Structures are given as C-alpha cells and as structure tokens.
Amino acid sequence: MHYRFKTTTSIILVLxxxxxxxIPQLEAQEPRVYxxxxxxxxxxxxxxxxxxxxxxxxxxxxxxxATIRFTTNIQDLSIPDITIEIPPISxxxxxxxxxxxxxxxxxxxxGTYFLNMEIWFDNRIIATDxxxxxxxxxxxxxxxxxxxxxxxxxxxxxxxxxxxxxxxWHIRHFYSDGLGIYYKLSDDYDGIEWNDMGTYxxxxxxxxxYERVKVNHHYxxxxxxxxxxxxxxGFTLRTPEGERIDVSPDSPLAKVIMDFFNGLKELxxxxxxxxxxxxxxxxxxxxxxxRYDVSxxxxxxxxLGMEWTEKLLVKTNAIWTPEMAWSDKLIPIYLDLGLSITxxxxxxxxxxxxxxxDTIWEPYxxxxxxxxxxxxxxxxxxxxxRDIGFTNTDWHDxxxxxxxxxxxxxNIYNIHSFKNxxxxxxxxxxxxxxxxxxxxxxxxxxxxxxxxxxxxxxxLALLGIxxxxxxxxxxxxxxxxxxxxxxxxxxxxxxxxxxTAEISDQIKxxxxxxxxxxxxxxxxxxxxxxxxxxxxALLRTTPDFNETVIALIHAMDSDYWWREFFSxxxxxxxxxxxxxxxxxxxxxxxxxxxxxxxxxxxxDNEVKxxxxxxxxxxxxxxxxxxxxxxxxxxxxxxxxxxxxYVTTSLTVKPGMNIxxxxxxxxxxxxxxxxxxRETYFTVYNKIFKAYNPVDFNVTLVIxxxxxxxxxxxxxxxxxxxxxxxxxxxEPPEYDVPIRYVIxxxxxSYVGDTIVTSGNRYALIEYSVELKDYGKYEYSVFIEPxxxxxxxxxxxxxxxxxxxxxxxxxxxxxxxxxxxxxVIVIAAILLIKRRx
Length: 835
Known about the structure:
The protein starts with a helix and ends with a helix. Helix 4 (199-209) runs parallel beside helix 13 and helix 17 packs across helix 18 (543-555). The protein has six domains: 1-30; 33-137, Immunoglobulin-like (Sandwich); 146-382 and 471-486, Alpha-Beta Barrel (7-stranded beta/alpha barrel); 497-584; 588-691, Immunoglobulins (Immunoglobulin-like, Sandwich), CATH 2.60.40; 696-834, Immunoglobulin-like (Sandwich), CATH 2.60.40.150. The chain is of the alpha+beta class. It has 20 helices and 42 strands. The longest helix is centred in the first third of the chain and has 26 residues, at 2-27. Belongs to the glycosyl hydrolase 57 family. It comes from Staphylothermus marinus. This is Glycoside hydrolase. GO terms for molecular function: hydrolase activity.
C-alpha cells in the first residue's frame, strides 16, 4: 500500500509539472489575424485625398498590440503607421481601421498603382495584403456618368388563403440574415437589443450612412404588406443563437417596421430615393397578358400594388416590371394608372426594339394611346448580372467582396471611356436587392459588398468621376429624345421557360392556370366588364368576384412558378380558392324528372332536365353540356335572361351492372377558350341510384252487389265490382307508380296507383253498372313503368248479361273477407297459369 501511494503521488507531480511547463507556451501563443487592405475609393484624381482602410478579423481569444505599416509605388507618398490594440475574438469579430487622409501628388499620370499593408507584431509580419487603385485625370470621356442603381426587393406571399402563413422570410430578411459581424439593429436604435440585421433593412441603413448616395428602390407590395401585417399582429423571431422570441405589436422591435416605412418616405422627400411600385405580388405580367389577354386583371393587380405602396410609402409614377416580363400591351395599362417610368433589359429587350435607337445609356420614350409617353430605361445586363447579381460565389472571403465592388467601377469607367458623348450617359444597374446577398456563401460579406459599392460611389461623386442618381436626376440631365415603336415580349432571361417548361409539374400547373383563366374570362364575359370602371364597380359590389380576383392574383405570383422554387401546393391552394368563389358566381337551378319515376336498369328511361338562369346577368351565347354518365349527352346553345329556363330530354338505358348514374350540367361561353380549349363551369352534378326492374302481374275478381263472385260469363243485369290485384315478383326498393286501364264494353277508365317501397301488392276496386242484356267484353291492363316482362300485365274476358245468373253467393261478406277471397282466387289463377 505504501508503494502504491508513492507511485500515485509521483504520477500526479509529473502531470502538474507538465501542465505548468505549458503555461508559458500558452501565454506566448502566436497572435493571428485575417486582414486585408483597401482604399476609400477605387479611382482617384491627381491631388485628391486617399484613405487607407484595413479590415481586421481577430483569430485568437486574447488581445495584443500590433502596428500597421503602409507602402505604395507612388514616390514621396507616405502613410503614417498605426498602432492598435487588437481585441480577442470573443469580444469582436471585426474591426476596420482607417489611416489619416493623405494627399496624392497633383502630377500623377493616369495608371494603376498599389498600396501594400503589413501588420507587425514583435518585429514579425503577421498579415499582409496589397490593393490596386487607379489614377485618372477625370471622368471617362471627360463627362461624368450617372449610375442609376435600381434595387428590386421582393418577397412572395408567404401565406395561404386567410393569412395562413407557412413561412416568414419577410420577417427573417428584415431582422436576421446573419449580418451581425458588421451590422446590428442595436447600433441603429437605442434601447433595442438585437445583434443582427436583415437585408431589407440594410438598404435603408446604408442610405442613411452614405448621404451622397442616391438609388431607386422597389419594395414589392406583397413584401411591405406582410411587414405591415407583422407590425400590427406581432410575429416570432429567432436570435442568432437560436432562441425564440415572440414579438408583440407593442414591442420596439415591431415598431422598427413602421420606422423603416417612415424613413424611406423621408429619403424619398429628400430626393435620395426614388420609390417604385408594381403589381401586388410578383407576376410575369407580359406573359400573362399575351397568353390570356386579361388586361383588366393585370390592371387591377397593379392598382392593388399601387394602393399598398401609397399607403405605406409614397405615391409614385415609376413601376418595376417583375422579371422585366414585358409586352407592349402593358403600355396603355401603365399610362392609364399614371405610371410613366419603367426599366427593361439592355440585352434582351433593347436589341429587338424598333424605332429611333442609339445606345442603352439614355432613356427612351414609347408612346401609348392619346400620344401619352412611357419612359423606358434599359439596364446594363452584363454589369448588373456579372458584377452584382451572379458575382457572389467567392464571397466566403470578405476581401473578394471588396475587390468585386472595386471591379464594378473599373468596368463602368472602361465602358464609358473613349466615347464622344454629347451629354451625360445614364448607366442603369438593375438587380434584385437581396438575392445576390442571400445566396452568397456569406450573407454578411454580401452586405459588405453593398456597403463598399455605396462608399465608393459616394467618394467617386465627390471626386467628380461618376455619381449615383434617381430617375428624376437622370431625366433632368438627360431627358429622352428618341422614340421607340415597339419592344419585344420577353423577360430579363430572354424567354419564359424558367417559369413554364423546365419541369413537368410546371406544364401541369399551366394547364390548371389555363382552366382558371378560362373561367375568369367567362365571368368577365357574363358580367360584361369590358370597361375598367365597370370592372372596378363589380369588385366593389360583388364580394365573391373580388375574392376570385384576389385568389388569382396570388396564384399568379411568379416566385412559385420559378423552376428552383416551384410550389404546386401554393398554386393549388390559391386556385382552389379561386374556383370556390368563381363557381358561386355562375348558378342555375336544375330539375331532373324521370319518366318512370326513378332510373331503372335494363329499360329505356326518358330523363327530362330543366335549367333555369338565376344569375343577375344573361347567359349569353352559352353552350350547355348535359351529360348522363357514359349513357347519353347533349349540347344546347342558349341565350337565357335572368329567370328564363330551357328544358330538354334524353333517353338512357342503364345496364344491369350499373348501380349509380351521375347527371352533370356544365356551362361555357365563347370567352372561355384558352388555346382553343373550352373551359366549363360545372353547375350541377348529382348521382342517382339505378334500380332493378320489377316484374308485375295482374289478377281480377268480379263481384256483384249481392256478394256473388262471378267466375263464369253469364249474369243478370246490375252493378259489377271489379277487384284488381297488382302483384310484384318481389318487393320493390322504391315506390312504383302504375297506370291501369279498365275497359268494359264501350266504356273505359284510366287510373293510377302505387306499389310502395317494400310492399308487393296494390288493390283496385272499380264498379260498373250493366243494365242491358248482351255481351260485354272487358280488359284490365296495367302499365308499371319498371316492368321488364309486360306479357302478364293484361287480363281480358267478357260478361254475358242475361236474366239467368250463375255464380257463388257469399252472405255478409266483409271487406276483409273479400280481400282474402281475391288473394286466394288470384293465387289459384297464378298456379294454373304457371302449370
């Protein structure tokens, strides 16, 4: 035991010694940082001021002091060293260090220069980087380009009918996109603890940061509507650490949304932001209007979007055409609504446009009815997509984001160099406002890219090299002077396949949309809404029609038709709502009558169908298709005013193996055709049971008032009572109406009776007075409408009236006894006949 104790103690002492020996090494761990250098502008003029900027990302969890040193290839240009305390990564993940401004020599020639940065610690370089910058004597071609940034921020409706939210991207991209390394709402708001920011808010935040930057912004109405709903009803957030937070409408976080709206209004009032509107959701307008010719629907979709833009932001005359999905049929719609500015694509729209053309660096006019003018700017598709929209694949490294921002302005400068402009070129950069950040390897570095392009254009404007502007600024310095005759129908992609034909489900969905549009066009036809004012009045006075339009507008949102985000469930949900309300707007009363009372198998049935128009409009040129399942159908073409009806008959013979038969009535009209395919409203569909036929026979007992049963042919004059029994081979499942005809001599009598469901018999009593001698022929004929074997439905005979009488007299024969006798005799007769 003593030996073991000594051994254990020795081991512990050795371990302690090893741990102690490591402590100095831990304290002496090599400081590490990731860092890169940049400048406050990618381009300078001789004699201007330059600021070196160092982006530092701590890599170790302790602080240390380091020195930043700069060198350049510009002779006699010196930037003072900077000594800084670099905090531990647990305290901050990023810091930006700016040098003091240094003035560049005034005699610098045009060229590319470099700035080198080194971070020194303990006489060692722990980080180094180099950045290039240009020196230019002035703006390209001696005239300053104006850059129009046109940002399209959009969010599809993230809800089903009834504001049933299935996603909350509008909330996430407003509050929490993982930008916390650079931007936090808590930096912009006192009293709010929120260590993150979303891309939608980021745009507003950076515009406040860079006061010389001007942009043109589109926040889609469906996006701002959903943000508005969130601010009024509350919402749920998750912190960057994953904690769930329920935000009430009274929370300061919820109020940020309304501050955001108000802040954009203020920037618009200052001329810093030109706000745009669009249709409510995100519809490929040109495709829909060309495919379906639904100008009223498109017009209302846009007007609805305008209402929300005006309610939450401003009234504007500029419209973002979603997906740049153009058709010239949009021109009168835009102009009617007071919209006079839009942006299209310089690669896919401009080359095919006809008219007086020069370059895409100027606005154009295309005229509509009454000589009104729509102003069209054409974006530089190459710069917009190559340098911004799809340049983000390497933004896992923040240095790459900065360098891409610098490249953007180098490319623009080169584009406008060596030109013979007679006025300032307008360079339109139009792209999504958020997606190129959200789909980057690092959303935060995407946000850094936006920050850098804003900082750079802010400084470039100060240097007189190029500047940003709004539509209003552009039209002031370069008013349109050329007129286009037409612009081709296409999108920014040069076609429609991305939304229509890349996967089989898209093709199926368009078939569903074709059907819905056929119904919608039918409604417009019936309500005669050719005039937009009548259309608007119908929306106000007919809630069900308004609901059909709202549902269709939601179903048309192109985000859910885009190949990568295609959602059949979303489309089906809203189309289902559309059909539900649309079907309520086309109503008829339908009555069905069967010649045999019910539908009977194995024999011909005449089906009489009456259709009455109960709609508040005339069923003009309406084709009515009446179909009796797999048995017969007919088509009627009618013009039925309200309250009028039409009747038709069809003959059907259900097979013995058919238990149920459906009768369907459908309506269509000339407006319902989509690609030569008619769309029908199903206004009636009911299933009727087909019943088995029943074999009936008839038996007869003739009696006199003296209770004599006549079973031969001779009898004295008097009153004769015909007791008729109608018998079914088995109890029917339904009431069977039966017509019977009794003929005696020259007299005849027709009557009706019923063999009720579950019973086998019906009894008929008929009295006739025969006074004269002679021979009276009689017959009893029954006509059950469901009898497959009519051979036993007839009895004939005669009565010879003489002064002699033969028969059986029954004294005090009660009615019950009579019935019993009749049944017995009938049974005997039936047995005889079968023998």
